[in-house]
Amino acid sequence: MNRLFEEAARRGLPTVSQEALRLCLSRALDRLRQDCLAGTPRELDEAFWQEITDALHVVPAISLQEVRNGTGVVLHTNLGRAPWAPEAVAAAAQAAQATPVEMDLQTGKRGRRGAGGEDALTALTGAEAAFMVNNNASAVLLALFALARGQKVIVARGELVEIGGSYRMPEVVKAAGATMLEVGTTNRVHLHDYEEALADPDVACVFKAHTSNFRVEGFTGEPSVEELAALCKKHAVPFVYDIGSGILCGAELPGLAKESTVRSAVEGGCDLVTFSGDKLLGGPQAGLIVGARPLVEKLRRCMLARCLRLDKTLLAALEATLALHALGEEEARCRVPSLRRLGLTVDDLTAMAKEAGEFLLHVDSDFELETVSCASKVGSGASPTEEIPSLGLKIIKKGTSAEGLVALLRQGTPPIFARVQDGAALVDLRTW
Ligand SMILES: *Cc1c(COP(=O)(O)O)cnc(C)c1O
Q1: Which among 21, 100, 308, 423 is least buried, having the fewest CB atoms inside 10 angstroms?
Q2: Is the CB of 135 under 6 A from ligand 1?
Q3: Would you say the CB of residue 247 lies under 6 angstroms from ligand 1?
Q4: Taking the model in full, what pTM does it have?
């Protein structure tokens, strides 16, 4: 593959996206192999390279081109959150063709959609059952719709979050056809607050939301997940926890110390846990739901489930990402790109500085570059106040302001997203 990449560069093929080039190359190689098997051997001739050039001229021309993330925000929502592992990209490309998304190969009859990913999720979290939908916002909507429509949902006042856009907890409860029974205050909620609310016979579930993008500090307090789960069990009311980012592997990584894992929420007694596929799981956009089998099945059978279902290519990418998590903590941290980025030490970043510098000088040889320390962020609502020590390249160009430079870089080929720090443009190497 490396030799092909070199040849592609020698031929001046558009290399806006290495990933697109890799895909086009492997597809053309597949066709070559098929021709060989069919008894019409071909070589890496002009026709081979023409095929790739044609394909590449379509790929980079779309608006969703590959860009460079120098913002230092590892899971940048506006830049598509988690970058996929090559294994996930390959799995999605494969599933783009005919694939047994709802077909049992053994019986030849209709099979359960997403079965592979669901099995991986139950194994990784210790939950009885799993179900996957379009994103975490849909997962929460589906859970509340299926469990509490026409009834009441208990939510703590300190958890009435707005995630962004128009996703606000009170609106979601309303859209699900349920009514909110608020408990506690902005900064504190007690177990007895929940207990008193649970006396209402119209309560269908208790909902807990990760506060995601903000922190309340000082005189604060809330019951633990275990305490709340035990109370819900006593009252035979389901306990649904929207944990947001959803850590499967990488709980020890910098910046994540205060986040709890999906497994700990399941073991703590939550009946349903919902989380995103493209945050700390490091996969494609998806909403993952794990928990008690009867409740998961209720969600699966719900009319809304069909409206919120996941595409086959995303299911494939998700299954491949989960397979990387299943290799264990250490492998997952190396092979899931967002986890790898979070784990990079300042020494690792120092080693990357030279290549990034050359890349930037290629954009404009008048750039003056300087390595400086900076701080990265996890992004997408995980550990909003944590800063991860990082290394960046400060970019200066005579006669151009920092803001001007950032705009210039953003409009280049490929677009580079830098940020302004201390009056200069800066590319954070952690996310590069
Ligand atoms: C990010 C987040 C959501 C929304 O998830 P999407 O996958 O973007 O739909 C919902 N709840 C919490 C707590 C979150 O952090």
Answers
A1: 423
A2: yes
A3: no
A4: 0.90
Domain check: are 331 and 348 in the same one? Answer: no
Query: Which among 189, 124, 139, 33 is positioned nearest to 329, based on CA atoms?
Result: 124
For residues 292 and 103, give the distance between their C-alpha atoms in angstroms, rounded to a whole number: 25
Look at the block and give the residue holding tokens 């001229």: 57
Residue ranges making up the domain that contains 44 = 2-66
Q: Which residue has the tokens 């005579």?
A: 398
The DSSP code for 429 is T
Element counts in the chain: helices (H) and strands (E): 17, 15
72 in any annotated domain: no
CB 166 within 8 A of CB 297: no
Which run of H or E residues covers position 243? strand 239-244
Say yes or no: 316 and 256 in one domain.
yes
* Structural domain count of the chain: 3
Domain boundary pick from 317, 335, 353: 335
Is 158 in contact with 185 (CB distance < 8 Å)? yes
Which of 288, 307, 335 represents a domain boundary (last residue)?
A: 335
d(CA 154, CA 152): 7
Same domain, 298 and 398: no
CA 300 to chain centre: 22
Q: Ligand 1 centroid vs 111 CA: distance in angstroms?
A: 29
Return the number of other C-beta atoms located less than 10 Å from residue 301's C-beta: 10
Question: Domain for residue 422, yes or no?
Answer: yes
User: Within a 13 Å sphere around the CA of 144, how many CA atoms are in the beta-carbon half?
Assistant: 27
Choice from 163, 243, 258, 314 to test ligand 1 binding pocket (greatest atom count within 8 A of CB): 163
Residue ranges, the chain, pLDDT below 70: 14-17, 60
Ligand 1 center from residue 137 Cα (angstroms): 6
What φ, ψ does residue 328 adopt, rounded to 5°? 110, 160
- The most distant pair of C-alpha atoms in the chain lies apart, rounded to whole Å, by 77
